[in-house]
Design goal:
alpha/beta; single chain; 10 strands; 389 residues; three-stranded parallel sheet; four-stranded mixed sheet
Length: 389
């Protein structure tokens, strides 16, 4: 790094030699090691991390910020698993607060958007013992009959592992069946933290980290792209976060099948980990920044605005984030039930464009795999400023 670049990009305060070396590697486009990633968490000041992350973000995307028009279908919150952090699921015997949708009810949700320019339906839910592989294959097929061009992003490895095991098919066979019936891509949920000791403490009974990674690897090999997540801010340590991202980085090197990485903030309302304090906004921004710096082979880092709120989402656009998810249209309960900032998550396209422009960024409506649908550089919607929460 030249002296001129250093004076322009390094903070005025003195840095340790180790942090200076990390900064130089980032500016030169070189990969940082797990040890260096851990050091960023442990010693990197928030301004320094934001500067490095924004450098990477703008090198990849300039001031572009992506969103899409989407809605969610959550077939059920009944689940055979008992994740300690989950505020959403109910056991089969629990009636209060549970729901179970039939195919007609789910297809009616799709029909609701028939004349609207949405591009994606996101389908995730609890792991219900009565909702098997063929049930969901038929659902996908019938969604495609209603709206052939609608992109179906569906099922975490947690759901897939259970339905494939119950149907007595291999992962490959199950994914091939779902793809032939309309599955276009997969979300990134269920990853939580890959470290086995942490997983044992918070979600011991569901699919393992190895199974999660294997399902995504096989999906990528079949031409099914996916996302990846990390649940942070609970009982894990910084070293566990780095280990998690390292496993993702290695798989991405191998397959190039991940679209985006989504850090998910632990929320402590109405779950078995309510005694665990939530992370601060500063820690949220730190985590976005380190994620952007570390995951050099991921094109996109997403802030899920219904979970962290609109103000923090705008701040995150200067800490490595280039995607804010979508319009949602109040069609998800997974995080609202856990005490997320947005209790009625819905934004119009105009409001999302306004939110992004207020942060000094350039809004791009994308499809699920980041093809541009509409460039909003020159659009000037006559709408009030987005109310921040």
């Amino acid at each position: 790094m030249s002296d001129q670049m250093a004076s322009a990009l390094l903070p005025a305060s003195s840095l340790s030699k180790k942090l200076q070396n990390i900064a130089e590697k980032v500016y030169q486009g070189k990969r940082i090691s797990p040890e260096e990633g851990l050091l960023l968490y442990q010693e990197g000041e928030i301004g320094f991390l934001g500067m490095l992350a924004n450098f990477v973000r703008e090198k990849k995307h300039g001031d572009l910020t992506f969103f899409n028009r989407n809605f969610h279908i959550e077939p059920t919150n009944i689940c055979v698993y008992d994740c300690k952090f989950c505020s959403y699921s109910r056991l089969l015997k629990q009636k209060e607060g549970s729901w179970e949708m039939n195919e007609k009810e789910m297809l009616d949700i799709v029909r609701k958007y028939q004349d609207q320019p949405v591009t994606e339906v996101h389908i995730v839910g609890g792991v219900h013992p009565k909702m098997g592989l063929q049930f969901f294959a038929d659902l996908l097929q019938n969604i495609k009959k209603l709206r052939p061009a609608l992109h179906i992003k569906a099922f975490t490895p947690v759901e897939l592992h259970y339905m494939f095991k119950k149907a007595k098919v291999s992962v490959r066979e199950g994914l091939e069946l779902l793809k032939s019936h309309g599955l276009d891509s997969m979300p990134g949920g269920g990853a939580e933290i890959f470290d086995e000791t942490v997983r044992k403490a918070i979600c011991e009974d569901k699919c393992t980290s190895e199974e999660w990674l294997e399902i995504h690897e096989i999906a990528h090999g079949l031409g099914i792209p996916s996302n990846a997540t990390m649940l942070y801010g609970h009982v894990e340590k910084f070293s566990h976060r780095i280990d998690h991202m390292e496993r993702l980085r290695q798989l991405q090197d191998k397959t190039q099948g991940f679209n985006t990485f989504i850090p998910l903030k632990f929320r402590n309302k109405d779950n078995q980990m309510s005694d665990v304090a939530e992370s601060s906004v500063v820690e949220d921004l730190r985590n976005y920044a380190v994620s952007r710096i570390y995951l050099d082979n991921f094109a996109h880092i997403k802030a899920y605005w219904p979970m962290i709120g609109r103000t923090t989402t705008q701040l995150a656009l200067n800490f490595g984030v280039d995607d804010v998810d979508g319009t949602i249209d109040d069609s998800t309960k997974i995080y609202t039930m856990a005490g997320s900032e947005e209790q009625n998550p819905a934004l119009t396209t105009e409001q999302l464009v306004s939110l992004i422009k207020q942060a000094g960024r350039h809004p791009i409506e994308r499809d699920t795999v980041y093809n541009t649908v509409t460039d909003y550089r020159d659009f000037d919607f006559a709408v009030p400023a987005v109310q921040m929460t």
